[in-house]
């Protein structure tokens, strides 16, 4: 069995930075909290919990009196940063720099009176964080139908940004639909380069193999998008979190297998899957 592993598979810069930040804080001692899971990978979150790191939700933060709170890689709404500051807690900001850039754009453009439109997944923590930096209510668009039905206030300029892990081709399609509506739009392509490269490589590999394995957390937006991209190119595509989930029953026609992984997937999980496939198929 020939196995092709994506060079871009695994931790991106922002995720590695966030995870390293938490482990460094653990070494410093004291009670460490992360506001929400630091990344969308259950294995990493569980390992941190075993080291004493607790995951906080907003209602728990309200009652917290002491400790160090680490802001997750996805970022948080401005009100959460303000709450941590007002409570006098130690705050360590591990927000991905690419996400932080979107916060600055949204804060500035909404402050200038523009309608903020975010292309992304509603309910995703990154999108909720971005919305929380807009001075006025932001609009989230995920589908073509939502783009076609977009109704911004008359005469108001529009600033359009994207979730960093959104599908690049889908982003372009939605921008094109919105631009045809005649709004005065400024578009900031805020999909990070690592996401674009990962998606392009996954698509290429999936088009060249007989089966494709996508590794990542079930709550990982960028991993789900990798799966969607690969599934269009390769009929035998599976989505797993760890080697334990791998239950492959390939037909005899499968000779080449491709492997990619989301930005929150640790290298050791990727290596376990790769080694298992090489030996057992």
3D structure, described in words:
The protein has helices at residues 13-28, 42-50, 58-63, 78-86, 97-111, 125-131, 144-148, 168-179, 193-206, 221-233, 267-280, and strands at residues 2-5, 32-35, 54-56, 68-71, 90-93, 115-119, 139-141, 158-162, 185-187, 211-215, 237-240, 256-261. By secondary structure, the protein is of the alpha/beta class. The protein is flat. It contains 11 helices and 12 strands. The chain is 43% helix and 18% strand.
Any key phrases for this structure?
11 helices; alpha/beta; 43% helix; flat; 12 strands; 281 residues
Order of helices and strands: EHEHEHEHEHEHEHEHEHEHEEH
Total beta strand runs = 12
Tally the helices: 11
Main β-sheet: number of strands, strand sense, barrel status?
Answer: 4 strands, parallel
- Measured distance between first and last alpha carbons: 6 Å
> Which parts are unreliable, with pLDDT below 50 for 5 consecutive residues or more?
none
Secondary-structure-based class equals alpha/beta
| Overall mean confidence score, pLDDT | 94
Q: What characteristic shape results from the CA principal axes? A: flat
Strand order of the largest sheet: 1-12-10-11
Name the beta content range: 15-25%
Percent helix among the residues?
A: 40-55%
CA-based gyration radius: 20 Å
In short:
With 281 residues, the chain is α/β, with parallel strands linked by helices.
